[in-house]
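Notes from hallway chat w/ T.B., transcribed later so I don't forget. T.B. wanted the structure written out for a chain they're using in a teaching module, and asked if we could keep both sequence and structure tokens in one place. Agreed to drop them here.
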Amino acid sequence: MPVTIDDLVARIRGHRCYSHPIFEHWAEVRPESTVVGALFHQIRNFCDATRPGGKFPEALAEHKLSKESALLQEIIESEENHAPELATMAGYIVNRAAGHMVFSDLYDQELVEQGLKECSDKLLENLPGYDPKTGLLAQTRRARAVFDGRQQVDRQSTLRNLGTALALEMISNRHLIPGEKAALVDAGHYGAALEDAEMHYLLEHWGEIGAEQQHEKNAVAAVHSVLTARNEALVLEGVDVFLDSLVDLWDVLDAALLASGRPGAELISA
């Protein structure tokens, strides 16, 4: 019996990534500004890799999946130019965590991103596989590499990419964005509100009218229409490779920077 869209949704919800406690741990403590910067450096770089569509919409159209191509193209266009807003939010939270102006210009994307990398270098450079040039953990690079498949146009890659897109949008809408809201706003550590101009990235993605809600609906519709006994194994492969790579990244960030809830100062002295 073919896998249904409900089966796929349940599979994603049942994966450890869906309920990973990294954001709960972030909310439980008030990590010092360097820890916050290092977290944002890795998370921001992961998010950057998820936005470009590459040849994915084109490949869907080539395989006579024009409706699915349009649904994915809507997501890709919606995510354009979000990198500067994410950098601004990251710099804003780092400033708040520090209690002074670490970043003098929150709208200078290059300045903020370089500062976040410096935080990452300070705390994570001795971990196995850390790349000093990019400041990325091995796990971050693997999570990013999942989206390299969007440069491929063959049928197998295209179906895997559909599975990855569904998992990405569900995790973003139901785990990552709510987690960031809990840690950055609801916990009250930073005195930040969704309405703050510097928090526009989170505001735009949060809630029932947020971008992620619509992205998930688009991804569900696109995958639903292609699930057949012939296609399901490749779609499932795309789901699993994304979830497994991201949970590995969450595990190492949680252990190295939040130590499952231990204060950042305790980690740094360890």
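Follow-up for T.B.: The mean pLDDT is 92. Might be a good example for the class.
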